[in-house]
Design brief:
Strand order of the largest sheet: 7-6-5-8-9-15-12-11-10
Oligomer: single chain
Helix content: 25-40%
Strand content: 15-25%
Amino acid sequence: MFIRQTKTKNAKTGEVYVKHTLVESVRTASGPRQRTVMQLGRLSIPRKSWPILAAELERRIAGQGELALRSIKCSDAVARAADLAMEKFSPRVQRRAENIADEKTADFATVDLNTAATSMSRSVGAELLVHDGWNLLELPRILKELGLNKAERSLSEAVVAARMIDPGSDLKAWNWIREASAIGEMTEEPLAAAGRNRVYEIADRLCGVRERIEAALRDRFGRLFPGEKKLFLFDLTNFYLEGQALGNSLARHARSKERRDDCRLVSLALAVDSRGFPLFSRVHPGNIGEPATLKEVLDAAGLLDGQNLPGFEAPTVIMDRGIATSENIEMLKNNGLKYIVVERGARSREYLEMFENAVKDPGFTRIDREGQPPVFVKKIEKADSDTVEVLCVSEGKRQKEKAMALRWEERACEDVLKLQGSIRSGNIKNKEKIQRKVGRLDERYSGFSKRFDVSLIPESENPERIQDLTFKRKPVFDIPEEDENPLWGAYVIETPHAELEAEQIWKMYMTLTQVESAFRSLKTDLGTRPVFHQSAERTEAHLFISVLAYGVLACIEHRLRQAGDHRQWRTVREQMSTHRRNTIVLTDDQGKIHHIRQTGAPESAHQDIYRKLGITPHMPRYKNIVAKRL
């Protein structure tokens, strides 16, 4: 093989264009001819390096490794030129199908086994699952009806797949699509030439039709997985942003649920159904109050104007206590919507005696769950109210709250002891400074002043100087200090569903874990945090891509559960990562270099998942003769 230079002159402008081509000499019936192997564009390396580049490209096309005894080494400039040429050449080879034969027809050739090699190794297992879920939700049809062309639909699928399989920044997604994944061989249109900016642009394009996509997916989820759809689970979370984000109107400082109070935040309100399928999403500034988001989402769902959400019959709204303000409860009542909430405030104290005896009280119903501690529930009907209350005592929640309380108190004691030691050693004596430090403890540990009694002992000669500090724990209830808090693990559920039993109400409330699971998937499985974008529009687009990816994820997990497999996506994704697609390179006895692009045979673990999802892991097998060795 050698490199040929061609010059073309523009007849109008007189400008001369130069291009370079890798060619090889072949024998034909009409005599020797030159055949083009690949276009190289315009080379910037000196002419004396062309033979080295030609030899390097021939080696790479043949799939040969570095030769230990090579007398000529490639310079960095030649290696970069070879990298660029192969990057453009490999996808083109994959798309060429001139020599594709029927796989059922035998195709024999004598090959040199010493030339066998593989290249273009790409992951294919998790991509097949995402591709199947994407098509099952009819997203190609939905996006086509919304005006997205084939290239945009293909890139949309690839970006969502990147968020599900190798989450990270948009730049990372672009690199993954081009260099690590076979998703571009599954989409409606090949993605080898997709530019980096298109990854950003497609997110903006999808976010622009977000409401229509969500509406179409709600309908598709309902038809694909018919069943009871009466629960509307709603919650709010926030994500932290990297950088200053000064130009981002959504970025605000607030209390971070991820304990990143040093960063600006953006909030996401999400509503899902009882099976975890996303219904609505809205992006808000990071400092928005939780109660303020409910009305907007219910209004978008058409539940505040007397209409019903399509597919929902008189839905019951289930929400966290942070959203269940008296104003929101009144809004639900005025619109004829039923609800299930954990009551805000210290309502549990009214039933202190009942909670103390819950385990022994025959009025409580014991709920046993496989592999989990029991829960005790009791329904309380109020004569002067149209709602009922359910008292709940969770042994698992009690153990968790006890551990948190003990850890909180232990840390608080350590800080008070440090302050006490500083006073006794004489490092700090000023009364005002000590009072400020005690005040900071009350800020750091919510409820510190209610749990600890701190006393300052002044010096006899000067009351403004403190000689010692003492403290002791205050009892929360009139019980011995060594006894446990009877309200650990106890909570009260309020609902107008008076016709239901306590156990039914509790189980309906526990479906709220579906939205908590959704947020957990968004933050961990889909890598939505941190947000790197510095504009509000790009931030909103970034979050919507995650919501869209979560919809596909929820579809895959639900179908696996229907097949008796309760593994989460992160586990399935890792399991499928070893299924690959490769190009096999062989040279036959005629010197012809064969490239065979095929998917590896799935192992038993892969086959198990494919079988449960009803997926046939078949992808086209391409065979090409790409060159001939001299």
